[in-house]
Amino acid sequence: PVLISQEADPETALVQQNHAEYELARMQQALSSLDDRSRDILQKRWLTDDKVGLKELSAEYGVSMERIRQVEQQALNKLKNLLIA
User: Partner of 38 at 20 to 30 A CA spacing, among 22, 54, 67, 73?
Assistant: First the structure.
């Protein structure tokens, strides 16, 4: 009987790893293009295990929860535009 490995062949695995590293570098570059407040809000809202709510961020920055939501949405749109370009 012929045994077939369930793992990807080494070449495919290397290509996938290189692509993941490339995408991570693109994301880091896109995040670095944001202003400090926008980057901080996105990191606290989406990129940590202990996600922070709008209420906490509005208290931290002294603005309304709606303003935090707007800053977050603008930052996400900017990231999206940078990453699809």
Answer: 22
- The residues of the chain scoring below 50 in pLDDT are none
For 2-19, b/e burial (b = at least 16 CB within 10 A) is eeeeeeeeeeeeeeeeee
User: Closest by alpha carbon to 57, among 76, 75, 77, 71?
Assistant: 71
Residue-wise pLDDT tens digits, 30-46: 999 999 999 999 999 99
Task: Report how far residue 46's alpha carbon sits from residue 69's, in angstroms, rounded to the nearest whole number.
Answer: 13
Per-residue tokens: 52? 């922070």
CB 79 within 8 A of CB 34: yes
Using alpha carbons only, how large is the chain's radius of gyration in Å? 19
Two tokens, residue 49: 């295990």
Phi/psi at 10 (5° precision):
-55, -40
How far apart are the C-alpha atoms of 74 and 71, rounded to whole Å? 5
